Amino acid sequence: MADSIVRTPEERRKRVQRIKKIILVFLMIALVTPIVVCICLGIQVSRLNRTIDDLSQRIQTVTELVEDQQKKLEQISSLENVQVQKDEEIQEEIRTTESEPDADNERITEAVTPESAAAHKVYLTFDDGPSGYTDDILDILDLYNIKATFFVVGKEGEWAEEALRDIVGRGHTLGMHSYSHRYSELYDSVEAFEKDYEKLRDYLKDVTGVESKLYRFPGGSSNTVSRIDMLQLIDFLNEREVRYMDWNVSSGDGGSRILSVNELVRNCTMNIEDNAVSVILLHDSTDKKTTVEALPTIIETILALEDTEILPITDQTELVQHIAR
Ligand code: ZN
Asked: Which of 43, 109, 172, 316 could form a disulfide with 115 if both were Cys (CB 3.0 to 4.6 A apart)?
C-alpha cells in the first residue's frame, strides 16, 4: 500500500538524506565502539600487569625467605651430622681398640707404697665419661660409701661440666683419658698428643679446679694402634710427673657386644682373690647400661670377699702398667 504512495521529489530527497544519516550514525558507532573497547581493554591489561608485577615481587621475596630457611636447616643438619659422626667415631674407636689389650692384662704390676692394710685392694675405674649414666654411677657408689676413679674425656656442655664437678665434689679421683679419644689424631705425633693433653688438662682445671696428675691412655699403654712409640708418650707424661694407669681386670664392657649383668659381675670379680691389686676397667658411656645395672652386685660381691677393700686411685696407689720404662 505504501509503495503505492507517490512521493514528491522533495520528500525523496529528505528520505535519502535520512537514510544517509542513519548509515553515517551506524558507521560512527561501528568505528567508535572498537576504539572504546580497545581503550577499556588497554586499561585492564595495564592494571593486570601491575598486579602481576606485584605478585612476582612477593613470590621472589617468599622464595628468598624459603632459600634462606633451607640454608639454615642445611647448616643445622650438617652440624648435627658432624656431631653424630664424631660420636660414632669415638664409639667405634673405643670398640675396636679398647678391648684389645685384654690379653696383656697381667703383664706388669709395679709395686710402690701400700696405702691400705687389706690383702686385696680393688680400684674401680670408669673410662670415657662423663655420660648420662655418671650421676647413676655416683649414686650407687655413694650408696655403698665407695670412692672410685673416673678417666674422663673432653665432653662439653653444662651437663658435662656439672658431672665433672660432681665426680670431684663427691670425693672421687679425676683422671685424664684424652680430650678427643680419637686414636688417629691422638697418636699421630708427640706434638698432637701434647696438644690434646693440654686441652683436657686445662679444661678439667677450668671446670673443676683440679689439675689431674693421672692418665689412662685410650686403648691402654699397650695399644697396637699408635703410630708413635708409646714409650715416647710415657716419657712425655713422666716429664710432667703424670702417672699413667692401665688395668689388670677388664669387665669386658669395652667391646661392641653388650654383656649381661651376670657376665659383667663374673668378669669383674673372679680373679680378685688372686690379686693383691685389681684395677678394674669399666666404662661410663651412654651405651653401657648393663654396666650400671651390674655395679651394685659387683660392689657387693667384692665387699663380701675376705680382707678386700675398694679404694680410689691416689698418688700412693700401686701402678698397673702394661708397658713401662
Ligand atoms: Zn676409652
From this structure: 316
- The pTM score is 0.67
Collapsing DSSP states into helix, strand and coil, what is residue 182? coil
How far, in Å, is the centroid of ligand 1 from the Cα of 234? 17
Residue 247 and residue 107: Cα distance in Å, rounded?
Answer: 10
Long-range contact set of residues 293-296: C-beta below 8 Å, sequence gap at least 24: 293/261, 294/251, 294/261, 294/264, 294/265, 294/268, 295/137, 295/140, 296/140, 296/143, 296/144
Q: Which three cell numbers stand for residue 291?
A: 654396666
Taking each helix axis from N to C end, the angle separating 289-304 and 134-143, rounded to the nearest 10 degrees, works out to: 20
pLDDT tens profile 147-161: 999 999 999 999 999
Q: pLDDT tens digits, residue range 52-70? A: 788 778 877 766 776 777 7
Residue 274 burial by Cβ neighbours in a 10 Å radius (0-12, 13-18, 19+): exposed
CA of 33 to the centre of ligand 1 (A): 92
Q: How far is the CA of 299 from the centre of ligand 1 (A)?
A: 22
Whether 114 and 314 have beta carbons less than 8 Å apart is answered as no
How confident is the model over 76-86, as a mean pLDDT? 54
Q: What is the tens place of the pLDDT at every residue in 8-50?
A: 888 888 888 888 888 888 888 888 888 888 787 888 888 888 8
45's grid cell: 591489561
